[in-house]
Amino acid sequence: MLQSTLFGKTQKQPPRDEVSLNARLLTQAGFIDKVTAGAYTYLPLGLAVLNNVKQIVREEMAAIGGQELLMPALQPKELWEKTGRWTDPGPEVMFQFEGRSDRQYGLGWTHEEVITPLVKKFVSSYKDLPLYLYQIQDKFRNEPRAKSGLLRGIEFSMKDLYSFHRDEQDLEAYYQRALQAYLRIFQRCGLEAIVTEASGGSFSKYSHEFQVLTPYGEDVIYHCVQCGYAQNREVTQLMTGAACPKCDGSIAEGKAIEVGNIFQLKTKYAVPFKLEYVDADGTSKPVMMGCYGIGPSRVMGTAVEVHHDDRGIIWPESIAPFRAHLLQLGSSSAVAKRALLVYHKLSSRGISTLFDDRPDVTAGVKFADADLIGIPYRLVVSEKTKANVELKPRRGQTSTLVNQTKLLAALKGKGGELGKQRNVS
Ligand code: ATP
Ligand code: MG
Questions:
Q1: For a tag on the chain, would you pick the N or C end, based on fewer CB atoms within 10 A?
Q2: What residue owns the CA closest to ligand 1's atom 11?
Q3: Which residues form a coiled coil (predicted)?
Q4: Same domain, 63 and 142
Q5: Do both 280 and 342 map to the same domain?
Q6: Ligand 1: which of 138, 261, 264, 265 to mutate, judged by most atoms within 8 Å of the beta carbon?
Q7: What is the reported pLDDT for 422?
Q8: 37-91: per-residue pLDDT in tens?
Q9: What is the total count of domains within the chain?
């Protein structure tokens, strides 16, 4: 992708109306644009990152048997009255409004009220179970504190998986598989998530949250520094310095961001919707359910909160918008020709590259922009580099002059989404 044609530009200063670090950096670097508090446009760079996160989620969902579908965000009041959630939590969480002929609708903030009656249409026997269905869709929540950028949207991306089982044992076994899949997702996205015991809110009695420690997190967790056992402050009896209930380590307090949450719903939604199956012995039983949520947009914001320095973002390679950022310094025809050659070579090898071909932009500005945008590998072609390329990892301090063979060897690996779509202009 040629940077001269890329939609969205870096800004000299972070936006004045953003307090959160992720929104300040992502806006300044040209990844997102705020429409209103808690709702953002993803510009091409930002959408590339979001799509990379979603791709990792899809791969791990497929690995545990998840089938993807897509439900409507717009939902009729009647479904939500069946579970009582039209009024409790009601408009506290849900955007509700009137359509034609006095019909009442709400925007989905979770999808049990749609998926449970859907599955009821297709499941009747124990032979139809188990079933694992998920979607990746925008959710809407009437959040009271939408000032944390991508961490807390009123519209945000969520992957929600729902599982359906014959009995509690089968639910428990799948719940453990989903828990492991979640850990793999966060690890692949460059995040270290701590499995944290928590209350189940309006979903279930208890749940497991996946918490990433950062000084800017809105949650507080108590976690064992030795074995990693953790509880959310809202449930916990634990205190700083206490002995860990699972090992002889000690408990520390930390601020954290909840990036995922899984619940054993059991029969909570099967009962109001009469989702039942006929078991092998001929008796009718309620279906056991689990639900499993991840916010890809919050994961993206969290990655920025965790991976940055005072010059900008440092994307984990797996979710970076491009793998390489090639800077052409100087506009002599010899330099321009060599830079273009490198760009074509990388593109033809499937290494997604943002090519800073902008004329009339100083070297200082190009370097500063590259640090701000945070693509994993910075490459420079200038008068000085001759037939070589200067290679510097965004995470490292030193640059090395390499020939093209070494360059390709160093950059081998997966490219970003955007680069894959639009490799060469
Ligand atoms: P929180 O406690 O932070 O408000 P929650 O517990 O209400 O979140 P869940 O219902 O568990 O959220 O949603 C599943 C996942 O969706 C969360 O773990 C998080 O990754 C994401 N998520 C929830 N609310 C938001 C939001 N307002 N903006 C962005 N992502 C969100
Ligand atoms: Mg939660």
A1: C
A2: 261
A3: none
A4: yes
A5: no
A6: 261
A7: 38
A8: 999 999 999 999 999 999 999 999 999 999 999 999 999 999 999 999 999 999 9
A9: 2
Are 282 and 330 members of one domain?
A: no
The closest alpha carbon to 338, from 403, 379, 378, 382, belongs to: 382
CATH number at residue 335: 3.40.50.800
Residue 127 located in a structural domain:
yes
Structure tokens at 78: 């009647």
Domain boundary among 306, 340, 375: 306
CA angle 385, 349, 399 (to 5 degrees): 30
SS3 44: helix
CATH of the domain at 32: 3.30.930.10
297 and 373 inside one domain: no
Whether 86 is in a domain gets the answer no
Confirm whether 101 is domain-assigned.
no
Determine the pLDDT at residue 413.
56
Closest residue CA from atom 31 of ligand 1: 295
| Last residue of one domain, picked from the residues 282, 306, 330 | 306
Verify that 281 and 367 share a domain, yes or no: no
Q: Where are the alpha helices (DSSP H) in 203-315?
A: 296-306
The answer on 194 and 302 residing in a single domain is: yes
The segments of the chain whose pLDDT lies below 50 read: 414-425
**Encoding tokens for residue 295?**
């916010």
* Phi and psi torsions of 143, nearest 5°: -65, 135
Give the pTM.
0.96
Pocket of ligand 1 (CB under 6 A): 141, 143, 152-153, 156, 158, 258-261, 293-295, 297-298
pLDDT for residue 199: 87
Residue 194, SS3? strand
Ligand 1 atom closest to Cα of 109? 10
Closest CA to ligand 1's atom 4 = 152
Q: Rounded to the nearest whole angstrom, what is the distance from the C-alpha of residue 232 to the centroid of ligand 1?
A: 14
Give me ligand 2 centre to Cα 102, in Å.
33
Contacts 24+ apart (CB under 8 A), 72-77: 72/108, 72/114, 73/107, 73/108, 73/137, 73/138, 73/139, 73/140, 74/105, 74/107, 74/108, 75/105, 75/106, 75/107, 75/108, 75/113, 75/114, 76/103, 76/104, 76/105, 77/103, 77/104, 77/105, 77/106
Residue 320 shares a structural domain with residue 280? no
Cα–Cα distance, 334 to 424 (Å, whole number)? 20
Overall size of the chain counted in residues? 425
Q: Closest ligand to 298 CA?
A: 1
**Residue 353 domain flag:** yes
Look up the domain containing 399 and give its range. Answer: 313-420
